[in-house]
């Protein structure tokens, strides 16, 4: 059973349970159980209605961070024991990592953006560090830039007359790659961040509306929202 089918099963199970509430209420223990469930539902809705999205994003970032680290550790351990991690597990780890990075950026945009450009700036310095090392080094076989010069010649047919030209070419190529990488990094962060913002806002808004209804109506409205979602998830996973 994959994640989608499991979520669909849980939703359908909850909806089936909700449809039989009146029958359960006929017994004394059943009535006590349903009243407790309605009380817990009310507490959850009240919590969501006053919850701040910024605080929720920070908590979600920590959750995804822990999940990502644990997932990567498990993937590493599976390699040591010659166990192939499943495709769904690997995708889940990668999605958790993506959500962690994006939500972490969303909760502290200035700091994370500066950190991003700081690391990319180190990449641009790299060719010039190689150039400096090659100037200092006396042994021609230990020089680094000619290796990159041969690689660029093989890939693009470029011919360089000096190490300085190789360093300049590497800097230009890295700069172009950084621009593309930064564009997709920002795009990913914005999409993931606002998906969670809209989702949390929707949950908070619906919770606020449900609080204005009478106790029994809350469950009915929640079921009317969840039931079609459960049907769709079950259809997708089938």
Number of structural units classed as domains: 2
Q: Provide the residue-averaged pLDDT.
A: 80
Q: State the helical fraction.
A: over 70%
Structural class: mainly alpha
Task: List the total number of helices.
Answer: 9
First-residue to last-residue Cα separation: 10 Å
* Count of extended strands: 0
From the alpha carbons, calculate the radius of gyration and give it in angstroms: 28 Å
Shape: elongated
Strand content: under 5%
Unreliable segments of 5+ consecutive residues? none
Q: Main beta sheet: strand number and arrangement?
A: none
Following the backbone from N to C, one meets helices and strands in this order, namely HHHHHHHHH
What does this structure look like?
The chain is built from nine helices and no strands. The model has no long low-confidence stretch (mean pLDDT 80). It starts with a helix and ends with a helix. Helix 1 packs antiparallel against helix 9 and helix 6 packs antiparallel against helix 8. The chain folds into two domains: 178 residues, no CATH class; 44 residues. Helix content is 86%, strand content 0%. By secondary structure, the protein is mostly helical.
């Amino acid at each position: 059973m994959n994640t989608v089918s499991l979520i669909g099963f849980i939703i359908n199970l909850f909806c089936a349970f909700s449809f039989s509430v009146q029958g359960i209420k006929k017994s004394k223990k059943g009535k006590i159980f349903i009243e407790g469930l309605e009380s817990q539902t009310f507490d959850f809705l009240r919590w969501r209605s006053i919850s701040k999205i910024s605080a929720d994003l920070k908590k979600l970032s920590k959750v995804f961070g822990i999940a990502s680290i644990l997932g990567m550790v498990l993937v590493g351990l599976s390699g040591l024991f010659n166990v192939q991690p499943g495709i769904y597990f690997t995708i889940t780890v990668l999605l958790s990592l993506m959500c962690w990075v994006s939500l972490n950026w969303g909760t502290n945009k200035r700091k994370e953006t500066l950190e991003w450009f700081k690391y990319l700036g180190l990449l641009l310095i790299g060719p010039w560090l190689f150039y400096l090392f090659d100037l200092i080094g006396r042994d021609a076989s230990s020089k680094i830039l000619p290796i990159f010069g041969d690689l660029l010649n093989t890939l693009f047919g470029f011919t360089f007359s000096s190490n300085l030209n190789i360093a300049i070419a590497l800097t230009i190529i890295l700069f172009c790659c950084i621009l593309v990488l930064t564009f997709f990094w920002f795009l990913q962060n914005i999409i993931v961040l606002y998906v969670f913002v809209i989702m949390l806002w929707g949950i908070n808004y619906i919770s606020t509306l449900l609080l204005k209804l009478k106790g029994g109506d809350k469950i009915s409205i929640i079921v009317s929202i969840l039931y079609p979602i459960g049907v769709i998830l079950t259809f997708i996973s089938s």
